[in-house]
Amino acid sequence: NSRVLTGITTSGTPHLGNYVGAIRPAITASQSPTVDAFFFLADYHALIKCEDPERIARSRLEIAATWLACGLDPSRVTFYCQSDIPEIPELSWMLTCVTAKGMMNRAHAYKASVDQNHAKGVDEDDGVTMGLFSYPVLMAADILMFNAHHVPVGRDQIQHIEMTRDIAQRFNHLFGAGKEFFVLPEAVIAEEVATLPGLDGRKMSKSYNNTIPLFEGGPKALKAAVARIVTDSLGPGEPKDADASHLYLIYKAFARSEESKAFHADLTAGIGWGDAKQRLCDRIEAELAPMREKYEALMQNPEQIEETLAVGAQKARQIATPFMQTLRQSVGIRKLA
Ligand code: TYM
């Protein structure tokens, strides 16, 4: 069986980008009988960008409920919280010791902070923590702990998976002695939705504050967010450039190709943006409404979520604990068996 693994950082409310980029393809993959799936809540990653404990706790529940509402079957999928697996930060340290600092200097998230600081004219590492700097190493530990072959993610994560391969190769080379400890993982990207745009046309992202929430706030919040999608100022009757419109791209992520073609034709023929937004809302709502009901029921029952995660953590540790033991031996900090 091939192993599929992915995670979401528990620093905010799940949005449409998380859903189309990661959750939906991951759940589909997990339904194949030849796949062993590992889906998790990246709560140690959340500490990097969020110093609000209540927000992290709330996000943890929201993201767990989202996975389950979207169809994750915990009897088939190993579904857990990163911080319940102490072997992950332990592995992260081992990997840190074989990771070239020069490679981390090139990581997008770190470089973005440095660039911003240059633009502001302050010290380039101003406000940069070691957490942010080493973020890709912790992510490598997430993936390598379970030797995932495939990692369904949005385009923004590709670099992290390339770095994971690099780190895995280096570890195999140094300590493998002919044995390959780590599988080299591959990113799985759904081309059509690799980068879902947000309200303003930039990548939909918590950090840009341009997200459309997946379930939170119900249909009302969805409608209010869709109303805020930026469009040009052409009126009804005037032909719209569908391909240049991020509203159309969001529609496409939720529609079958015939529906998208029809929508494209109607935009070109000049339907008003108000009508277009209503149609987008209806299309998204048709997919989300049944899942939202489940989401709301789960959010009323956090104990059930905690139980599910506790069982998942046990399953995950059945793999992580012996593997970590092997890795400790391989680097020489435990006697060779
Ligand atoms: P995070 O929490 O930022 O995002 C979770 C997943 O959603 C995808 N995504 C998008 N896809 C398409 N369009 C968008 N606008 C969009 N916004 C977000 C992300 O690509 C991601 O797949 N570092 C990761 C979490 C993580 C992880 C891992 C993922 C930690 N360890 C191991 C895979 C494997 C992150 O912060 O994702």
TrEMBL record:
<feature type="short sequence motif" description="'HIGH' region">
    <location>
        <begin position="10"/>
        <end position="18"/>
    </location>
</feature>
<keyword id="KW-0436">Ligase</keyword>
<feature type="binding site">
    <location>
        <begin position="203"/>
        <end position="207"/>
    </location>
    <ligand>
        <name>ATP</name>
    </ligand>
</feature>
<comment type="subunit">
    <text>Homodimer.</text>
</comment>
<dbReference type="GO" id="GO:0005524">
    <property type="term" value="F:ATP binding"/>
</dbReference>
<dbReference type="GO" id="GO:0004830">
    <property type="term" value="F:tryptophan-tRNA ligase activity"/>
</dbReference>
<dbReference type="GO" id="GO:0006436">
    <property type="term" value="P:tryptophanyl-tRNA aminoacylation"/>
</dbReference>
<feature type="binding site">
    <location>
        <begin position="17"/>
        <end position="18"/>
    </location>
    <ligand>
        <name>ATP</name>
    </ligand>
</feature>
<keyword id="KW-0067">ATP-binding</keyword>
<keyword id="KW-0648">Protein biosynthesis</keyword>
<feature type="binding site">
    <location>
        <position position="142"/>
    </location>
    <ligand>
        <name>L-tryptophan</name>
    </ligand>
</feature>
<keyword id="KW-0547">Nucleotide-binding</keyword>
<feature type="binding site">
    <location>
        <begin position="154"/>
        <end position="156"/>
    </location>
    <ligand>
        <name>ATP</name>
    </ligand>
</feature>
<protein>
    <recommendedName>
        <fullName>Tryptophan--tRNA ligase</fullName>
        <ecNumber>6.1.1.2</ecNumber>
    </recommendedName>
</protein>
<feature type="short sequence motif" description="'KMSKS' region">
    <location>
        <begin position="203"/>
        <end position="207"/>
    </location>
</feature>
<keyword id="KW-0963">Cytoplasm</keyword>
<feature type="binding site">
    <location>
        <begin position="9"/>
        <end position="11"/>
    </location>
    <ligand>
        <name>ATP</name>
    </ligand>
</feature>
<keyword id="KW-0030">Aminoacyl-tRNA synthetase</keyword>
<comment type="function">
    <text>Catalyzes the attachment of tryptophan to tRNA(Trp).</text>
</comment>
<feature type="binding site">
    <location>
        <position position="196"/>
    </location>
    <ligand>
        <name>ATP</name>
    </ligand>
</feature>
<dbReference type="GO" id="GO:0005829">
    <property type="term" value="C:cytosol"/>
</dbReference>
<comment type="similarity">
    <text>Belongs to the class-I aminoacyl-tRNA synthetase family.</text>
</comment>
